[in-house]
């Protein structure tokens, strides 16, 4: 993991060039372990707090633009009569996604990570202070669009959902295996575009199973609503567990 920005990648940062000393790999690994251990402790605190309120928390992850916010907008409009919903939105900059969610009538808090490329448990804890979700509600956490390091950071959620859209290519589960291995559910989104793109749904399902045999896979269109009930059924089942 990159220890300067915590982005999970092994790259050099410009400010590291010209350091008067070299950071050895043992120091880097120790620092990574400390960052993740601190995050895990805060995630445990979030999980206990949410469990105490009977809140089901779902962490939504994908590459930028796969359709996380669109799926949430439809989900809130279709299901908020069944159960209260609140949303934490993660993006590097702008309040745009939280604004979209609020337009559905749902409470939302925007977290801007600046140079950071993933949400951390501390940010979710602070957003929960502000959001103050009702007992028994459903909490969606939309992570920063990124298929790499959000997989490493436990937020205290009950389930991880990874979205891949048909415009991204069939091979994504194989190229980003850590993200897909972490998923409880993989949603293949934008199926309305299947007639126009070279995407093999059966092969994508097989790739998910290759890295994560236990993952559920659903193919939906957040825009047209095709097969969207299967996602709502998964949420109901997750809430009942
Ligand atoms: N055709 C089609 N377009 C979709 C679908 N879902 C989302 N989109 C479009 O994809 C684009 C990105 O959707 P968003 O919901 O903003 O994606 P996101 O994952 O929240 O993006 P970031 O928050 O920036 O990572 C928008 O233009 C949506 O209208 C879908 O099922 N079908
Ligand atoms: Mg979004
Ligand atoms: Zn990151």
User: What is the CATH fold-level name?
Assistant: Rossmann fold
Strand count, sense and barrel status of the largest sheet are: 7 strands, parallel
Number of helices: 8
- The largest sheet has its strands arranged as 3-2-4-1-5-6-7
CATH architecture: 3-Layer(aba) Sandwich
pLDDT averaged over residues:
91
Top CATH class: Alpha Beta
Low-confidence stretches: 1-5, 8-19
Shape: globular
Give the bound compounds: guanosine-5'-triphosphate, magnesium ion, zinc ion
In CATH, what is the homologous superfamily?
Answer: P-loop containing nucleotide triphosphate hydrolases
Structure description:
- This protein has 241 residues and is an alpha/beta fold.
- It has one domain (14-240): 3-Layer(aba) Sandwich (Rossmann fold), CATH 3.40.50.
- Helix content is 38%, strand content 17%.
- The protein has helices at residues 25-52, 68-79, 96-102, 121-131, 172-175, 177-182, 201-211, 228-240; strands spanning 56-62, 85-91, 107-112, 138-142, 159-165, 185-189, 216-219.
- It has a seven-stranded parallel beta sheet, sandwiched between helices.
- Helix 3 (96-102) links the parallel strand 2 and strand 3.
- Helix 1 (25-52) packs parallel to helix 4.
- It is globular and about 50 Å long.
- The relative contact order is 0.16.
- It binds guanosine-5'-triphosphate, magnesium ion (MG) and zinc ion.
């Amino acid at each position: 993991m990159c220890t300067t920005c915590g982005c999970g990648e092994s790259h050099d940062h410009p400010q590291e060039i010209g350091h008067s000393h070299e950071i050895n790999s043992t120091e880097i690994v120790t620092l990574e372990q400390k960052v993740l251990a601190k995050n895990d402790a805060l995630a445990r605190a979030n999980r206990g707090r949410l469990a105490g309120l009977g809140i089901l928390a779902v962490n939504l992850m994908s590459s930028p633009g796969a359709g996380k916010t669109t799926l949430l907008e439809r989900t809130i409009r279709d299901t908020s009569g069944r159960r209260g919903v609140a949303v934490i939105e993660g993006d590097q900059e702008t309040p745009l996604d939280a604004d979209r969610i609020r337009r559905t009538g749902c409470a939302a808090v925007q977290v801007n990570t600046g140079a950071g490329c993933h949400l951390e448990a501390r940010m979710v804890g602070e957003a929960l202070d502000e959001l103050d979700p009702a007992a028994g509600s459903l909490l969606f956490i939309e992570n920063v669009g990124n298929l790499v390091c959000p997989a490493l950071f436990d937020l205290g959620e009950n389930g991880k959902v990874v979205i891949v859209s048909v415009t991204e290519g069939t091979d994504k589960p194989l190229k980003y295996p850590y993200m897909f291995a972490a998923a409880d559910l993989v949603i293949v989104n934008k199926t309305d575009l299947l007639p126009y793109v070279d995407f093999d749904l059966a092969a994508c399902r097989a790739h998910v199973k290759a890295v994560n045999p236990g993952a559920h896979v659903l193919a939906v269109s957040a825009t047209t609503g095709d097969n969207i009930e299967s996602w709502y059924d998964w949420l109901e089942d997750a809430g009942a567990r």
